[in-house]
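My main concern about presentation is that the manuscript never shows what a single data entry looks like. For the editor and my fellow referees, an illustration may be useful. For illustration, here is how one protein appears when written out as sequence plus C-alpha cells:

***
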Amino acid sequence: MILPMANASNSFDVLVIGAGPTGMASAIEAQRAGFSAVMIDKGCLVNSLFNYPANMTFFTTPELLEIGDIPFSSANQKPTRHEALEYYRNVAQHYKLNVRQYQQVLTVTGYDGAFVVATRDRHDQVHEYKARKIVVATGYYDRANYLGVPGEDLAKVMHYYKEPHPYYDMDVLIIGGKNSAAIAALELWRRGSRVTMVHRGGEIHGNVKYWIKPDIENRIKNGEVAAHFSSIVLEIAAENVRIKTPQGERTLKNDFVFALTGYHPDYEFLESVGIKLTRPEMRPVCDPKTFESNVPGIYVAGVIVSGARTSEIFIENGRFHGKQIAEDLKGRIAVTSPHPT
C-alpha cells in the first residue's frame, strides 16, 4: 500500500534514531531514493567515534569507512579518529543531512505510516516528530558492560578511555584484556602511569591486533606493565582495589580504574518500541533482506542487528544496511522529494 505524503515541518518519511556512520548512511540512502529524512541523536554527530580514544587509529582502511559514495582521503593506510570525524562532518554537509543533535528519544508511539517520536533536548524541552518509517541505528558504544562490584560507582572508575595525560604518575588499574584495554595500557605506560592489568582470561586475548599484541605482551614480560590473569576485581575503594588471583586475594594501591570490559546495544529501548529479541544472542527479530523488524515500519541497522555479538558488524559492513532499507522503502511509500542530481 502506498501511504500519503508527509509535509509538516516536523514530519518526515523516514526518521533515523542514531547519527553514527550507519545512521548517516541510512539517511543518505533514503534521501537519494527521494524520501525526506531526519536523524536524531542524544549526542553529537558520530557520537561514538567522538568518544573513542583521542589518539585512536582505525583497524581498517579509509575506503571501508566510506558512505554515500564520498571518497575518504587519508595520508595514512589506517585513518585516525580525527580524520574520521572530519570525513563524516564533510559527508553530512555534502548531503545537507538534517541532524537533530543532543536530543534523547523518550518514546516511539503510533503505527506503520504514522509514528510519533517524542524527544527531550539538553535544555529539557520536549520535541515531537512524525514519521512514516523509523530506522533504529543506535549502535552500542554508549552502553558499558558493568562489573557489578562494590565501588564501581566511584568517580575514579571509568568505562571509557580518552587520553593518557591526566594519569601521569598515577597508579592505574585496567580491567580487561582485549584491544581497548591493551591500547590504553600501552599509552598510559608510555606517558608515565604505573599500570596494572586485571583480566579474567589466562592471557591477552587472541583477537588483539597483530601489531599491538606483541607490544603489550613484551611490556608485561619485562615487568613494565603489571598483569594479573585468570583474575577478577572484588571491590574498588577510594585508595585501593581488591582483586582475586590464582595465588589468592591481593589489595593494590590505586588512583584510577578503567573498566574496559566491553559494551552492548540498548536492549531496553529496542524492547520498549516492541522489537523482539532472541535469547541468548539478544538479536532483534528482523527480515535479513530488508532489516524490517517484527514491528511493521520499524527497521534496525548497524551493529544492533548482531545483538550481543557486537564483533560481527562494524562500520565496514553495517554501512550497507541503509541501501537495503531504502530499496524496501521504494515499493512501500510514495516519494516526497526529488532525487538529488
